[in-house]
Amino acid sequence: MIALGLIVHAAGMRALMSEWAVYIHITDKSKLVQRGIFKVIRHPIYCGLILELKGFSIALSNWISFLVILLANVVSILYRMKTEENARIKNFGYAYLQYMATTKRFIPYII
């Protein structure tokens, strides 16, 4: 699971190339990335991170580690994702709304 997470995470970063940033910073020069893994899911980096965290939680075989590592991080990831989507809607408008309507967040064709 950790390896799958790393692969998905890396595919997302590779597809973003120069558009990747630590902070949510969208400018007039920013482009809506829909290439690579972004053709099938909107948030591959966050999806990969969640898979990695789930893998670490399973490897530790402890419910407390599951709660602390996975659930606490998922809450912050979901908040960041929503903030990022709102910024993209503000910048890209209808194009991003259309992208949202045709591309799932994490799992192609499901969620």
Structural features, described:
- The structure is a single chain.
- This protein has 111 residues and is an all-alpha fold.
- Helix content is 64%, strand content 0%.
- It has helices at residues 2-16, 44-60, 63-92, 94-102.
- Helix 1 (2-16) runs antiparallel to helix 2, helix 2 packs antiparallel against helix 3 (63-92) and helix 3 packs across helix 4.
- The longest helix has 30 residues, at 63-92.
- The protein is elongated, with a radius of gyration of 15 Å.
- The two termini are 18 Å apart.
Largest sheet: none
What low-confidence regions span 5 or more consecutive residues with pLDDT below 50? none
Which percent band covers the strand fraction? under 5%
| Class based on secondary structure composition and strand pairing | mainly alpha
Could you spell the SSE succession in H and E letters? Answer: HHHH
Number of strands: 0
Rg (C-alpha, Å): 15 Å
- Based on CA inertia axes, which overall geometry fits? elongated
Report the average pLDDT across residues: 89
Helix content: 55-70%
Give the assembly state of these chains: single chain
Number of helices: 4
In angstroms, what separates the terminal alpha carbons? 18 Å
